[in-house]
Amino acid sequence: MQGLDGDASPLGQAHAALGRAARETDPRAVGRDYFALFIGVGRGLIMPYASYYLTGFLNERPLARVRQDFAALGLERDPGSSEPEDHAATLLEVMANLAARRLPAEDGADHRFFERHLKPWIGRFFTDVAAQAATPFYRAVGELGEVFTTVETEAFAMEA
């Protein structure tokens, strides 16, 4: 990540900022920040789950919808994982695989997935990460996520 660079576009600038933050970071401080943000004592400052952002509780209807759509895509939960499937990282990984056509899906599946599982909450999640982070690294992660969400929303709106 330290070699990450970008161009003059908003997304490129956010990538460059994350690369700078990675180069200048103290790994121990980033580890402490990760713990405070996402794990915490009892719970982290931020709950990275669609269910929590959309309902205020874990394991709610948004998770059931994710599981339905994952089954339709032929995706199964890793039996060794304890994380619910509506975790931000999982949803973003599936979105990336749909956009890159690494998953067999019909045209527009990435747009539908974004609209259904990410657009309603992921922007707020990234805004919270940027606002709550104690390190420049996680602030840059949050800011990159905010830009990504805006770019995706605008790009999909142009397709409609």
Task: Describe the protein in words.
It is a single chain. The chain is mainly alpha-helical. It is 64% helix and 0% strand. The protein has eight helices and no strands. The radius of gyration is 16 Å and the shape is globular. The N and C termini lie far apart (34 Å).
Task: Indicate the topology.
Elements (H helix, E strand, L loop, with lengths): L9 H14 L3 H13 L10 H6 L5 H12 L15 H12 L9 H10 L3 H11 L3 H24 L1
Helix pairs in contact: 1-8, 5-6, 7-8
Task: Tag the structure with descriptive keywords.
mainly alpha, 160 residues, 8 helices, 0% strand
Shape: globular
Number of extended strands? 0
Radius of gyration: 16 Å
Helix content: 55-70%
Strand content: under 5%
Structural class call reads: mainly alpha
**What is the element string, with H for helices and E for strands?**
HHHHHHHH
Distance between the termini: 34 Å
Please tally the helical runs, counting DSSP H or I stretches of 4 or more residues.
8
Mean pLDDT: 94
Largest sheet: none
Outline the low-pLDDT stretches. none
Write a brief caption for the model.
This protein is an all-alpha fold and about 160 residues long.
